[in-house]
Amino acid sequence: MKFLREVKKEKIKGKTCLLRLDLNIEKNELKDSLRLERAAESTRFLLKIGCRVVILSYKGQLDIGKVQRDKFYRRSYSLRPVTRELSRKLRQSIDFVDDLNPKNWERKVNQSKRRIVVLENLRFYGEENKNSIPFAHLLASLGDFYVNDAFSMSHRQQTSLCAITRFLPSYAGIGLEKELVSLNHVLKNYKKPLVLVLGGAKVSDKAGVIENLYPKTKHILCGGGVANTFLFSQNIPVGNSLVDRKIASQNIYNRFKNKIILPSDVVIKSGAILDIGPKTTDEYSRLIKKAGTIVWGGPMGHFEDKKFAKGTFEIAKTILKSKCFAVIGGGETTTAFRKVARMDADQNADKRRYISDNLRRNQRKSASVFLSTGGGAMLEYLAGRKLPALQALDDSNMRM
Length: 400
Ligand code: ADP
Ligand code: MG
Description:
By secondary structure, the chain is an alpha/beta fold.
């Protein structure tokens, strides 16, 4: 894989970069989005070198037939609001190309006088999901080289992530590189003991990580739907708690139970477990304080409601105070962590301690935390799988 940071500046100065970002961000998250921060950083890096940037991304799972018919539907999936926010962050005007006929894109991009152009949601075209060679060829005509800075999407086989690398010199962007460095650190040079903290709603994503990291791991602390599922698989009644029945039937708990720790007390409302209890929180915190490395994916409870946020917030606080290296991933988990980190910085007056990116490099005495933009992608990478878009970057370099 070739990294953008290592490319000689003279080689790409003045050229147009096709930059694949993950701008799949809900409107209500735009004001405080890790993905948007990373997207801005990545774009700024290219502008600084003197490149023009054409940004590719998508938003949402949508019904393509309806996109063509219904302009209100189309608007609800448009990348226009996120483009506006990106423009504000970069203090740069951005041209937005929303022509529904891809054949017009090359002309529109060439006509634009701006240094940044964003193409409308690529999922408006069925070809994006098909890893299509003709569509990739068309996209490639819009730039001189390609950069993937969408780690969080790299577990998907899509045209703008995979097939496109057949047609242009292709590089891993600075955000993607950071992700890989941090995750490889966990896989290869992690400091012992390694502790996994797993929760959240998407339980199946976490099974592969347990399997792959089990031999290296000291403890697997479970909360959220992961804990509910394992409790359920031992026939412990969990009422109408969030459970993944398919995973519960797969005997994962029994295979790995030597290291799995389940909550000893929980917070229940209307027959559903919605958070880990205070005893469990203390126990998990005690083990986290002793950890050398932590991987955290998935909140401990339904933290969006203050009544069920305590477990998740306490875990975040403990990680902030501990001396470990932590990788934290997933949309909801990173949102919860950032909230706590910000409160912590506010209370301690020294706001610089909290760098927007959360890489608290200067703070030797406390944890250094890497926030991964990937939920599913991070977990798949840690499960030892080769992500299709990363494979595509490798293959592209073999060819070019
Ligand atoms: P991430 O986005 O960090 O990858 P997930 O998408 O897997 O995490 O899960 C996040 C969601 O899980 C949150 O919206 C949270 O409310 C929910 N959640 C966590 N624990 C529970 C629980 N016990 N019951 C219901 N929902 C839960
Ligand atoms: Mg989520």
